[in-house]
Amino acid sequence: MKLIVGLGNPGVEYSRTRHNFGFMAVDNYIRRSGGVWHFQAKFNAQIAELSLDTEKVLFVKPQTFYNLVGESVQRIRSFYKIDLNDVLVIHDEMALPLGAIRTRRGGSDAGNNGIKNIINTNGAEFARVRIGSGVQPNASGDAQPSSGRRNYVLGRLSSEDETTLRGELSVVDQIITEFITGKFTETTYR
């Protein structure tokens, strides 16, 4: 069994914000695959279940708010006895410019509070898809906004940024399928 977790914040007021890129990615995959979301209170999460290539896959949108997602992930892993190596977490990444995607397994939280919470409650050796949400890099390569980071990640996307994100989501769909079929690789997509 595989577990695919999209990070984001519940509520319509957050639906088109950078911090909800993970939710948008799993929503896109489930919509394309014909799955249906159901709220499961014992996990405090929206869950959709698919079977792909004889593999049962749970797609999850924790409803705990971004910085507290680890508890929901831990409950699901424990209930279904899912190994951490079978977990893929999809999230926004301010250190990468919009349009960039990086994949990796393990590592630090890189200042992402949702990832920090998952690491603290589950461990670090899960796979990750980091969807760039930052600004165009400056001369030193920094893609993070110079101020107002909270307002930036919770800010709504412009129509131009939404177009860029839609293009990224098709790449994330491919990465999810590769993870499910055991072909996950660590790389950068741009």
Approximate helicity band: 25-40%
* Contiguous uncertain segments of 5+ residues: none
Largest sheet: 8 strands, mixed
CATH topology: Rossmann fold
Structural class: alpha/beta
CATH class: Alpha Beta
Mean pLDDT: 91
Strand percent estimate = 25-35%
Question: What report would you give on this structure?
Answer:
The protein has 190 residues and is α/β, with parallel strands linked by helices. The chain has a single domain (2-189), classed as Rossmann fold (3-Layer(aba) Sandwich), CATH 3.40.50.1470. It contains five helices and eight strands; from the N terminus they run βαβββαββαβααβ. Helix 1 (21-33) packs across helix 5 and helix 2 runs parallel beside helix 3. The protein is globular and about 45 Å long. The two termini are 30 Å apart.
List the helices and strands and how they pair.
Blueprint: E1 2-6, H1 21-33, E2 38-40, E3 45-52, E4 55-62, H2 69-80, E5 87-97, E6 101-105, H3 113-122, E7 127-134, H4 149-153, H5 159-180, E8 188-189
Parallel strand pairs: 1-4, 1-5, 5-7
Antiparallel strand pairs: 2-3, 3-4, 6-7, 6-8
